[in-house]
Amino acid sequence: MIPLHRSAEVAKAHSNGTPVVALESTIITHGMPYPQNLEVARQVEADVREAGAIPATIAVIHGRLHIGLEDSELTALAQAKNVAKLSRADMAACIATGGTGATTVAATMIAAHLAEIAVFATGGIGGVHKGAEDSFDISADLMELAQTPVTVVAAGAKAILDVAKTLEVLETQGVPVITVGQDSFPAFWSSTSPLKSPLRMDNAADIASAHKMRGNMGLPGGQLVANPIPKEDEIAAADLAPIIKAAQADANTHGISGKAVTPYLLQRIFELTEGRSLTANIALVRNNARFASKIAAALMSKDA
Ligand code: PSU
Ligand code: MN
């Protein structure tokens, strides 16, 4: 048996057929500093409600898989120290041993699917790290997208990754990468990149239909929806390039590896941009939460 626990709000939505949007918790524990992380987590939940869906922030707390957190649980998680960062490999072990951990994109997808939630909003997914030809550091998020039927809304992939290689792996794994409203694949803090998006769709209804069609065809896996950061909130790619280079060089100097790489780079970039990266990050996560709510609503409608 899986100790799966829905919050009161999510349980109600589940039985009433109200659209639900899953949200991850690693962004709270490892992606942003306190107290902004708590403010953002609450704000993103409010954005989902305002858009007509119900938010389900996912985390493992004392061995229970929580689908939707009460405000007291969210507050505790945002301040907790040494919380595990859970992916496919370690999630079951954490639940089985009564542990507490935040869920990455991969783990959140697994939990959402178990709870029958089809849409998930986040900031950015993990991908192929620079230098992966030596380190073999490729996020389990990519393989999860290939096998778990959840549509994930992100703002593209961060330039801390090798974005071209990330797109190649997604193609090899058979993951549809759909950019919203433009031809260029967005680069997280910047709305465009030199890379062309494999697919483009201009509205939530089409994305919901594509999600359903994969299911009808018996194709496993989800979809990656790349939703560009709003122009007024973006940071120019040229401004970021030297900062990312410096952050990567620091990570190498300090021998950062494995799970620690992404949180380290995010924190370094936050420092080097004097907080600008966080302001942009907040804007894009909120934008993704609103768009994911539209997809969740479209999935509930008969003609999707
Ligand atoms: N990218 C971001 N912010 C994040 C993450 C990625 O812009 O917070 C987190 C997500 O939870 C993602 C995880 O699933 O990092 C990927 O970690 P890794 O590269 O270790 O797989
Ligand atoms: Mn990794």
Structure write-up:
The protein has 304 residues and is an alpha/beta fold. The protein folds into two domains: 1-117, Indigoidine synthase domain (Indigoidine synthase fold, 3-Layer(aba) Sandwich); 124-304, Indigoidine synthase fold. The protein is built from 13 helices and eleven strands. The chain has helices at 8-16, 26-31, 36-50, 71-79, 91-96, 105-114, 132-135, 140-147, 163-172, 204-216, 237-253, 261-272, 276-300, and strands at 4-6, 20-23, 54-61, 64-67, 84-86, 101-103, 119-121, 151-154, 177-180, 199-201, 223-226. Helix 5 links the parallel strand 5 and strand 6 (101-103). Helix 11 (237-253) crosses helix 12 (261-272). The site of pseudouridine-5'-monophosphate (PSU) has 18 residues, from helix 2, helix 8 and helix 12. One of its GO terms (molecular function) is metal ion binding.
**Morphology:** globular
Q: Could you tell me the mean pLDDT?
A: 96
Q: How many whole angstroms does the radius of gyration measure? A: 18 Å
Helical content stands at 40-55%
Q: Mind telling me the CATH superfamily name of the largest domain?
A: Indigoidine synthase domain
| Cα separation of the termini | 33 Å
At CATH level 2, the architecture of the largest domain is 3-Layer(aba) Sandwich
Spell out the helices and strands N to C: EHEHHEEHEHEHEHHEHEEHEHHH
Number of helices: 13
User: Under the CATH scheme, which class of the largest domain?
Assistant: Alpha Beta
Which stretches are poorly predicted, pLDDT < 50 over at least 5 residues? none
Strand content: 5-15%
Number of domains: 2
The CATH topology of the largest domain corresponds to Indigoidine synthase fold
Please summarize the sheet with the most strands.
11 strands, mixed
Structural class category:
alpha/beta
